[in-house]
Design a protein that fits this description.
Strand content of chain A: 15-25%
Number of strands of chain A: 9
Oligomer: homodimer
Number of helices of chain A: 7
Structural class of chain A: alpha+beta
DNA sequence: CGCAACGTTGAAATTCCTCAATTCACGTGG
DNA sequence: CCACGTGAATTGAGGAATTTCAACGTTGCG
């Protein structure tokens, strides 16, 4: 096991390319600060810098730890919540990968987002008190449950937490605006390039390779997220590969030229 | 002047169809509770039920009133804020109509939203402290300025305000998800139908006619918001008119059959 | 081993965009 | 008050991008 790292996310540690079904973690102390049977505290979690505790001091994190329930774990395909269900808790992803889906009255369904470790899920339910989307695990995942009522109470006591929570929600808004821009004004290959670069950036921020990773979602799910049909996604992947910009083999992606992938975005 | 109405929004009062350049207001006590030279307080504002004070008690609204600055007014075309500018304040729209625009590195611009009275603008800037979008008045508008630092302080003192603010941000997220669904999975005419029905609903919620209103934005701006070209928007309007679902004349819209417009959305 | 889900590829069909011409609405200045 | 100019809107024809339909290959799981 790697030595414990208290500095939050080790930005320059690059993981070996994850093999197809192998777990994702570059850092091995997610989940425990002493031994694997221990429940991790936010206090010692590697994701601390990315997650809810970011910017809190020692004492504040300890108080946050008192309300967080770390027991929730999901198998691939499990629902974390369903549209229409009551909001009980927000969830921070400790390990794994989720998607959220909205579904329209007429049955049309669309992936609203893909979520990875350190990210917070469930904020869309605050407005009405009910979830507006389904959240489904794309691989076995572990989650920290944050009971919302207690969280609001606590964030009242801890201004720093409240501010950070506002920032997280606001970032969710700007993220959505980015997707709107993508859906409204980009062509198929541009969309896919944006998607790949976004994944790359998020993996890198968690200490994984920015250029080699495994997709957790199908072509159809990618297409749904990007407003494209699965065949279009597949063709775009093939085209990128023929251009030598990436290597794709099923779910395994290698970005061979990050710069050129970025250039593809500007028409 | 109409008699003062303390019940928030008069949902069943329908306005005369606004003439082309006439002001929008169905309710005449927006802006004053005694005489027109007086500055309105949230306490007496007709929009109270839709805006930030919703759900606050008398005392809480009075405290909110102490930090709100009601002086900001914009002429058509004026910027409320620009992308990159520091977040100073959030703004509640008292009268008028705004659009927010994001612009991509390569110059592509997209309308992110249209905003009308009672709505809050500026939340996208909380994440980074800088505005991510431009906000531009589509007609002469008056705004309530809410200095953000003071607001966060106050919402710390008033849990009800904090909760309501969370709800407002969350609703912004679900609104954006709705737009993503629209952009990702609907065809041109469906998008326009959704757009018209959404406007209709929002006008109705403010006491105006759900079936007759004036657009404040150009075909190009509608298209930008919906991910379509202006010609496509124009053709869709014409098609709806030929079907007898709406009447369009330039900016003036009459929805002749709300039900049928709704049916157009399900393929 | 075989089935089922996933992925790739091709050809035809559709939707939307681009380009272009024309009309309309509105504000300005003669 | 009218003429004019400008920006906005409508409409048509042709073309480009994406979807649809279909066939086939691959992967992984029971």
């Amino acid at each position: 096991m790697d030595k414990e790292n208290k500095m939050g996310v080790p930005a320059h540690v690059h993981a070996v390319p994850p093999s197809d079904r192998a777990p994702l973690f570059a850092v091995t102390n997610v989940g425990s600060h002493t031994a694997s049977h221990c429940i991790t505290l936010c206090e010692t979690c590697v994701l601390r810098g990315l997650c809810l505790p970011a910017g809190l001091n020692q004492n504040e994190v300890e108080r946050l730890d008192t309300i967080v329930n770390r027991k929730r774990s999901l198998k691939r395909g499990d629902y974390l919540h369903r549209a229409g269900g009551e909001l009980q808790s927000l969830y921070a992803i400790r390990t794994g990968f989720l998607k959220t889906c909205m579904l329209h009255d007429d049955g049309r369904e669309q992936v609203a987002g893909f979520h990875m470790m350190g990210e917070l899920v469930g904020m869309d339910a605050i407005g009405s008190g009910k979830h507006v989307s389904d959240a489904i695990a794309l691989e076995d995942s572990e989650l920290c449950e944050i009971p919302f009522a207690e969280f609001e109470q606590l964030s009242h006591d801890l201004p720093a937490l409240q501010q950070h929570f506002h920032r997280i929600m606001s970032r969710e808004i700007t993220r959505d605006h980015g997707v709107m821009l993508l859906l409204g004004s980009m062509r198929a290959e541009e969309r896919l390039a944006v998607f790949l670069l976004n994944l790359s950036k998020r993996f890198a921020a968690r200490g994984y390779s920015a250029t080699q990773f495994n997709l957790r979602m199908t072509r159809e799910e990618i297409g749904s997220y990007l407003g494209l049909k699965l065949e279009t996604v597949s063709r775009a992947f093939s085209h990128f590969q023929n251009q030598g910009v990436i290597n794709v083999q099923n779910k395994s992606i290698e970005i061979k030229d990050l710069g050129r992938l970025g250039e593809l975005i500007n028409r």
